[in-house]
UniProtKB/TrEMBL annotation:
Keywords (A to Z) from UniProt: Activator, DNA-binding, Transcription, Transcription regulation
Name used for this protein in its record: MerR family transcriptional regulator
Keyword Hydrolase included in the entry's annotation: no
All residue ranges annotated as the HTH merR-type domain in the record: 1-71
Highest taxon of the lineage: Bacteria
CDD domains listed in its UniProt record: HTH_TipAL-Mta
GO molecular function: DNA binding; DNA-binding transcription factor activity
Species, as recorded: Paenibacillus elgii
Length: 248
């Protein structure tokens, strides 16, 4: 069975432009075309598209997905088992975050009291789901050094680091209605810079580029803005000010 590109787009819920892009970058090339030049997708193409969308749901970059699914060692069943395991983990984390939202609403109404720790249950920045992209942008050596530092930490140290990260996000969220070059914002961003350099090695330029990625990459924006709408943009601007000011 062959399906036209518009029918695939309607079936899956993605745009024709996205399918054209997947074809252009060699991620998903349809097996045929009509006499008029319209793309035709086979059952095998649709199975591959399903795999791609599972990986996208798990925030894998397209370059990494292409590398995985076009590898000679790629096993579709094994990949599906991996998808299932990772999605269950993601569902568990989201369920925890929803529970945190419910408790926070009750807290805001004065119905219950929440501890500081309870306010941030479900947030976990102790691992980096975008490691592959970091490798592509800054190279394996920098990422390997960061991983080595994180791996050498005890579990208690890693948990303490994650709590510190969440606390800085929360602090910056509370400042985001002000100016990114304010003394308070710059002090908080310095804490962020110092913390990142405990885990890796960031130059001021890399720090500034990281802030820009918070806005350019919707996955970063989505995660950071959980602490407050517009936080990613505020952090980008504050990090740029910090980098420009301190390298003069």
């Amino acid at each position: 069975m062959s399906v036209k590109v518009k029918e695939v787009a309607d079936l899956v819920g993605i745009s024709v432009r996205t399918l054209h892009h997947y074809d252009a970058i060699g991620l998903l090339t349809p097996d045929g075309t009509t006499e008029a030049g319209y793309r035709l997708y086979s059952d095998e193409n649709l199975e591959m598209l399903q795999q791609i969308l599972f990986f996208r749901e798990l925030d894998f970059p397209l370059t990494k997905i292409k590398e995985i699914i076009h590898s000679p060692s790629f096993d579709r069943l094994e990949a599906l088992e991996l998808h299932r395991s990772m999605l269950l983990e993601k569902r568990s984390r989201l369920d925890t975050m929803i529970a945190t939202i419910d408790k926070t609403m009750q807290h805001a109404k004065g119905e219950i009291q929440m501890t500081t720790k309870e306010k941030f249950e479900g947030f976990d920045f102790s691992h980096n789901p975008y490691e592959q992209e970091a490798r592509e942008r800054w190279g394996d050596e920098a990422v390997d050094k960061a991983n080595a530092k994180a791996g050498s930490m005890s579990k208690d140290k890693q948990e303490a680091m994650a709590q510190t990260m969440n606390a800085i996000y929360a602090k910056l969220a509370g400042l985001r209605s002000g100016s990114p070059d304010s003394a308070e914002a710059q002090a908080a961003v310095k804490e962020w810079y110092d913390l990142l350099n405990q885990m890796g090695s960031y130059t001021l330029e890399a720090f500034k580029c990281l802030g820009q990625m918070y806005v350019d990459d919707e996955r970063f924006t989505k995660n950071i803005d959980r602490f407050g709408d517009g936080l990613a943009k505020f952090m980008r601007d504050a990090m740029a000010v910090y980098a420009d000011t301190n390298r003069k």
